[in-house]
Amino acid sequence: MGVETDTLDNTGAGIKSLPVPEIHEEQLEAARLKFTGVIEQIPPIFSNVRVDGVRAHELARDGKPAEPKPRNAEVHAISLVSHRKSIIDMQCTVSSGTYIRSLARDIAQALGTCGHLTSLRRRQIGEFSVATEVPEYRGQVGLITRQLADTEALSFFELVEIAESERRRLYQGQAIRLAENVAPGIKRVHAAGKFAGLAQCDGRVLRVEKIFPSAADNGPDLTRRGI
């Protein structure tokens, strides 16, 4: 706490500096309660969020205005522990699409100062946890997930179904409009029940994020499009 950076982490340039007040347990508990549940947050300008159809980080690196719109995220659980005057240790369980850098910035602000994220470790995603140890795979990074079908390995992303006729449009980068609003973030897309890849969703519209070979094999020839 005390310094905010343009990237909201320790790789960025400082853009704001404020004194750090003495933080008491009551203030930490108030901040914990404030940021538990469905919250509104503004993503970092250095992020993959699109601003007028362009990635915010691309605009920011070109020196152009990159101001992502506020969006909802869900913090299922959070703990805040003060180690030293300027350091807060956070442990969070959050929904997909939550930016921990933004959470660090906003908590520091709620505590009467500014701040940035100094380090981040993901402890669990879906069924995969750092606490899970499979002896025969020790030291063989990626071997377990390589033996899973893409749709199984990515099961922690919410599933969205589209019509088979929309698969080609998705692969070509066209926007796919959904019949109902869904939570923003990365979605696992099935076309007619078959895995089609990952897409970014702003709540009502899907745009392709990642095509996997196993998914593309069931779709059109993408080699000449460079996907």
Describe how the helices and strands are arranged.
Layout: E1 3-5, E2 14-17, H1 25-34, E3 37-41, E4 50-51, E5 54-55, H2 56-61, E6 71-84, E7 87-94, H3 100-110, E8 124-125, E9 128-129, H4 143-146, H5 150-153, E10 158-162, H6 167-171, E11 176-177, E12 185-191, E13 194-201, E14 205-210, H7 213-216
Parallel strand pairs: 10-12
Antiparallel strand pairs: 1-2, 3-6, 4-5, 6-7, 8-9, 11-14, 12-13, 13-14
Relevant terms:
Pseudouridine synthase, 2 domains, alpha+beta, globular, three-stranded antiparallel beta sheet, five-stranded mixed beta sheet, about 230 residues
The CATH homologous superfamily of the largest domain is named: Pseudouridine synthase
Could you give the count of β-strands? Answer: 14
CATH architecture of the largest domain: 2-Layer Sandwich
Task: Name the CATH class of the largest domain.
Answer: Alpha Beta
Nearest-integer average pLDDT: 84
Oligomer: single chain
General shape: globular
**Main sheet attributes: strand count, strand direction, barrel closure:** 5 strands, mixed
Total domain count: 2
The CATH topology of the largest domain, please?
Pseudouridine synthase
Q: What separation lies between the terminal Cα atoms?
A: 41 Å
Which consecutive residue ranges, at least 5 long each, have pLDDT under 50?
A: 220-227
User: What is the count of helical runs?
Assistant: 7
Q: Roughly how many Å is the radius of gyration?
A: 20 Å
Largest sheet, order of strands side by side? 10-12-13-14-11
Give the amount of beta strand, in percent: 25-35%
Description:
There is one protein chain. The protein is of the alpha+beta class. It folds into two domains: 3-120, Pseudouridine synthase (2-Layer Sandwich); 146-225, PUA domain (Archaeosine Trna-guanine Transglycosylase, Chain: A, domain 4, Roll), CATH 2.30.130. The chain contains seven helices and 14 strands. The strands form five sheets. A five-stranded mixed sheet has the order 10-12-13-14-11. Strands 3-6-7 form a three-stranded antiparallel sheet. Strands 1-2 form a two-stranded antiparallel sheet.
